Amino acid sequence: MTKIVNRAMWLSLSLSLFCALPALAQETRVGNLTGHAEVGKKLYQRSCIGCHGPYGDGNGENAQWIDPKPRDFMAATFKCRSTPTGTLPTDQDLYNSITRGFTNSNMPHWDSLTKQNRVDLIAYIKTFSDRWKTDKAGDVLKIPAETPINIDSIAHGAALFQKLECWKCHGQQGRGDGPSASTLTDSKDNPIRPYNFAAGTDDSRFKCGSKNEDIYKIFMTGVDGTPMPAFGDVIQPNDAWDLVHYLRTLQISRHSKENEVLRAAGGKIPKVEIKDPPPAAAPAATPDAQPDAKPQGTGK
Amino acid sequence: MRFAKSVIASGMLLLCPALLLAGTVSGKITYSGTPAKPKTIDMSKEPNCAKAYSTPPVTESFVGGAGNTLDNVVVYISAGAPDEKSAPSQAVTFEQHNCRYTPHVLAMMVNQELKVVNSDQTSHNIHPLAKINREWNKSQPPGTPPLSEHFDKEEFIPVKCNVHPWMRGYFAVLKTSHYAVSKGDGKFELPNLPPGKYTITAWHEDYGTTTADVTITGSETKNVDFALKAKAY
User: Fold this and answer.
1) Predicted ipTM of the assembly
2) How far is the C-alpha of A40 from the C-alpha of B73, rounded, in Å?
3) Contacts with B135 from chain A: Cβ below 8 Å
């Protein structure tokens, strides 16, 4: 009798573990919160369906009136990631996006919802694309220590801005008026503008976070679904930081350490030469943070 | 000794069919109707590239020849051949040269290595607008090494450079190794086809697709021509 009972117990235990495993594989976790798609579904139908649509493809009834268009969750392409271009974002990335909202768009900052609710919503939106079943989130970008903010860094960043031809879209003053700017379209063929660094007096217009680290991330991982490419494979991390410092000086009306440094240097950025093309670094997203390629003549 | 000879003989007999009984499908692609005229490309915003052209270049969505032949059509076996498990180890190359893509249409197999080369003095970004495969977008400044990528699903992917809006190309990512892209006189050839019943598909970036069925019985060459309807816009 006990033998049969034991066997039955083992069977039911292993069966329940087996059934739990698929759920575990799909788990959405942010911090110590786990998302539940069934709860997220009800929240979505109340708060999100008007823009993002019943199929999550961004074709809600409001979509025709707004620009930029709502995110198409069926495509599973996301702008703001800490993972390489073409890979899925982490749950934390999605949580940050839903909490922050997207400035200059109709996506509000959803901190009116509880943290748990936001995590539940993330679990639900993942059900709109099979990619979440077949792919894992990309490797999280390792962000090395920021280089010091001094005039050398800014000067080097300015030289990179020219060398990497950022001005072709962003314009020489970063006002989004470069020669190619008027022809830009996003991946759904909607016209799109490059970021205008000179507008506004603060950081409120950055879509993916407003710290130096966030700008660094955008630069390395690109803004998927838009013309902004990833530079992670073609630039060294220190160079990327220098570029970030230069970009801050394009925000001419914003108080920043970088603008103070520039003012102290007389308001002029010295011209420096980059002797060689930006050296190819080992991809920034690998766990090994030390690039293999030796930097060639970066002027230091 | 005799036994050994007969073993060798029968071994060769077994091998021979595989070597001898392989047919070829060849043909020509033509279009009917009036195609839209290729437009002149204004490269004045990119002097580095504009200077390479003595006469302004034109768009490549329609490349035709005498007798209404059509180039840049991907012809491939879409049914009848077994799925191939592994991709060739040889990479295919996509080049950004004088602000055009070479070739305009690049065919490759699923998981085959794609090398993207920038041989211009200007930066390009390589942006395959994939919907089934992952969409990625990478910058490639001049002097940087080739990018190495691959696609793991079958798809016809438009490719663009956002900085230079006239740059347009296509990746044809296929499950089969039996493919060809028509070039010069709209001609194509699909060799090394074992006996069987096949469906062949011809794809053009603007004129859509058309199919034909063909049966290979031995080592014959079958002629299959395709006709696509041109679009006037």
Assistant:
1) 0.85
2) 46
3) 75, 77, 86, 187, 224-225
Which residues on chain B are in Cβ contact (under 8 Å) with A219? none
| Residue A263 to chain B, least CA–CA distance (Å) | 31
Calculate Rg over the CA atoms of chain B.
21
A129 contact B CB<8A: no
Residues 150-169 on A with a CB inside 8 Å of B are: 163-165, 168-169
Comparing C-alpha atoms, which of B162, B101, B123 is closest to residue A228?
Answer: B162
Cα–Cα distance measured from residue A168 to residue A181, given in angstroms and rounded to the nearest whole number: 7
Long-range (24+ apart) CB contacts under 8 A made by A53-61 are A55/A128, A56/A125, A56/A127, A56/A128, A56/A129, A57/A128
Residues B46-90: pLDDT tens digits? 999 999 999 999 999 999 999 999 999 999 999 998 878 789 999
What are the residue boundaries of the structural domains of chain B, listed by start?
A: 27-229
B121-154 b/e (C-beta count within 10 Å ≥ 16 → b): ebbbbbbbbbeebbbbbbbbbbebebbebbbeeb
**All domains in chain A, ordered by first residue:** 27-134 (1.10.760.10), 151-264 (1.10.760.10)
What is the per-residue pLDDT across A133-163, written as a single tens digit (0 to 9) for each?
A: 999 999 999 999 999 999 999 999 999 999 9
| Class of the CATH-defined domain B27-229 | mainly beta
- Give the pLDDT confidence of A88-127 residue by residue, as tens digits: 999 999 999 999 999 889 999 999 999 999 999 999 999 9
